[in-house]
Amino acid sequence: MNIAIIGPGAIGLFIAYALERAGVKATLIYRERFRKLLVEKSGGPKFKIGFNIFRLSHRLSFITAEKRKSYDIVFITTKAYDFKDAIMEAARILKDDGVAVSMQNGIGLLEQSERLIGETRSIAAILTYGATRIDIATSELKGTGNIYLGQRVGEASPLLDEVKNLLNRGGLNVEIVDDIDGYRWLKVLVNAAIGPITAIFREENKVLLQNKYANQLAISVVTEGMDVVNKQGVRLPRNPMDELFNVVRLTAGNKSSMLQDVISGKRTEIDYINGAIVEYGRLHGVPTPINETLIFIIKGLTGE
């Protein structure tokens, strides 16, 4: 079975590490050839857990270098704003019965995949693991958790079980769920509070517990989002307010990816997180002024 990972950054190298533990050598596909060359020059891709650094022996490639219809499974681990290009590349290199596994934060990515390659070939993966990139070639595990897999189709692809089994063999906690939309929206509500608020306060996740203003703002963000989700008719697997503060407690010392992006002046994924709440709020006539204000502030900070 041929497997590829498009976008081997923090999460991509985490998945590559799990696949290697499962005895699978995937192809790591970079968006630009020069990034591949820089990784090779630095000694190849690596994954760090605690004080241990594991060198990964996967094959390296770059977009457009791979032959058409070569892969059974393609994991897409890019940022949300790079997903469109990545899923188009996946459509080119996937076999006719192959599947793409989208692992992005936010809403709208699975929908893009379904439109381009079809519902039966589109799998969503919701991660509660944490990983961060140390340098261009190295990713580090920052927190353990779960991966929820699912499809929005009546009869799932047989490769759904294969993805689960591969990642389980790699030591990850993976579960197939019937209603993946509930898990997608639950993570959006949590990220909509943690990401922008930590980025604005320039603090680790624990600021939502320690600062009463950050705490109240987080509650307001999730409350707005819950109103939208209720109108959308989505059934959440857990109470989102409880989930928010459980995640914050478990990741108190972590810097959110949005905080890291703001500090480094990079584009954020806010359009796919808070932006999704605002977009669906407008669709259902639900006001979302707090989420909209957070979007304005974050984009003002990054110049997006």
Describe the structure.
The model has no long low-confidence stretch (mean pLDDT 95). The chain has helices at residues 10-21, 33-41, 83-93, 109-117, 159-169, 180-201, 207-210, 212-232, 240-250, 257-263, 274-284, 289-302, and strands at residues 3-6, 27-30, 46-49, 52-55, 59-62, 71-76, 94-102, 122-127, 130-135, 138-143, 147-150, 174-176. It has an 8-stranded mixed sheet with strand order 5-2-1-6-7-8-11-12, sandwiched between helices. The N and C termini lie far apart (40 Å). The chain folds into 2 domains: 3-178, NAD(P)-binding Rossmann-like Domain (Rossmann fold); 181-302, N-(1-d-carboxylethyl)-l-norvaline Dehydrogenase, domain 2 (Orthogonal Bundle), CATH 1.10.1040.10. The chain is α/β, with parallel strands linked by helices.
Order of strands side by side in the largest beta sheet?
5-2-1-6-7-8-11-12
Number of strands: 12
- Uncertain stretches: none
Question: What would you say the CATH architecture of the largest domain is?
Answer: 3-Layer(aba) Sandwich
Q: Structural class of the helix and strand makeup?
A: alpha/beta
